[in-house]
Batch of 2 targets.
Target 1
Amino acid sequence: MVVGELRDEAVDHLFHALADATRRDILRRCAGDEPSVSRLAAAYPMSFAAVQKHVAVLEHAGLVTKQRRGREQLVRTDPGAVRWARQALDQLEMAWRGRVDRMSEVLAPPVTQREHNPTRGRDR
Amino acid sequence: MSVTSVDKDFDNLTVTLVAEFDAPIERVWQLWADPRQLERWWGPSSHPATVEKHDLTTGGEVLYFMTGPDGERSRAWWRITSVTPPTSLEFTDGFADQDGTPIAGTTTTVQVRLAHHDDRTRMEVRSIFDSREHMEQLDRMGAIEVFQQTVGQMDALLAD
């Protein structure tokens, strides 16, 4: 199972990688484009080494891939991994949305349409 | 719709959801405070929850299990860290092994706030999770299929 491959440590790496604004920005830049590490480094007010480290964290988490072209290393966002992380957060949202729906049902069992209370609001 | 807003915070791995119910605050509080009512909404229909112990006091605990489609049971617990009826509840939620021993690293912190809103009740739930716990939860809820079917939009993440 696809998700099974991402359990435990891999998942921790993924969320750690995403929990940083610079790294998310790098993901953004490397999604539409395929910049080299040095071009990326020029975009941030930090050292080349610091940017390189961020890229390494992203690479370790499987969010980006690096490809050597000549003397440059090109960085590219892996859409599948980003999508996966997105879905993981969505899943928590869905769990709570489901709970809220069920709470509403407990509060007003759907025997009759609870939104259509005939005693009010009809002639506004 | 009952859910009025959802905020996902990548930095803090937090999902904050706001919902409104057409019911008084005391009634909404009962959804949390009455174990029989809690059982009716906590777990998805595929994995309903059965509450075995329910002590909603600070330091108290709620023990429950969720039953999957094949009859398998996942034990879980809440540890209440703060409770002020009928407006506020905070607890950690985690899984346990079959002996009831909490499984390390599987916890989520949940903060619930209820407020009067005209004749309705506004509920804010802040859910702060670690990734591993989240995956455990996904697994236990049998939600992985749904999860895989979800068409994720990369733009949505990248636009955050």
Target 2
Amino acid sequence: MSERSDTSHGFGRVLVAVYAVFAIAASARSIYQLIAEVDVDTVVPYAMSAFSGVVYIAATCALATNHRRLAFLTIGIELVGVLTVGILTLVDSELFADQTVWSEFGRGYGFIPLVLPFAGLWWLMRTTEHTA
Amino acid sequence: MTDLVAYGIAILALMVAAFAGWHMYRNLDVGNPLFYAVSVLEIALLGLLIGSSIALGQTSRDVNGVLFISYLVTMVVIPPAAVLWGIAEKSRWGTGVVVVAMLTVAALSARLLGIWKGAYV
């Protein structure tokens, strides 16, 4: 595998670093929320936090180890997730009684969760061109 | 744990971020000056961890201790992890990793102050 086509080199280094930050942020938030009292109101946001944590961890590992298909899959899920949760939090704030990484398109995290999947997909496509 | 300490750490992290950003602009990889700059921040963060832990034990504030300590530990772990990940990349993107890490430390420092003041539950 040449260096240029490897997803963990060049710009990919930075991308993996940002993904790692969100993998920790989302999963740590989730673990904390699950340890704290879960009641009926907060089942949806807490489940979503846990799910987003798993997605970010998988995406980080996939990008770091150049597993393209897994990276495409997880970043795709991430994009759908941030858009869906973003819209839902605006439409029905009752559903999300507590914050998740993806709430309001990731506003609590400087909207980076919204930008990140686009950057990820762009990088995957760009590195694919080099492989061919 | 005061505003001064939290913002001091945040400003220090932003200064290292700017220094790393300059390296990135010049297309330099992670060299000794940047390594020392990150090391200075790391020493400050270790001091913050120790000082804040003592302060947590003595304060009468209603601080969420688990959250507070987990933030402090995360802040201490980030710089060495970033240097290890960034040093292997001999290009501007290696220092880019350090930029990301320093901005993260600055953001965590601001949130840490929020936890201390009981703004986050």
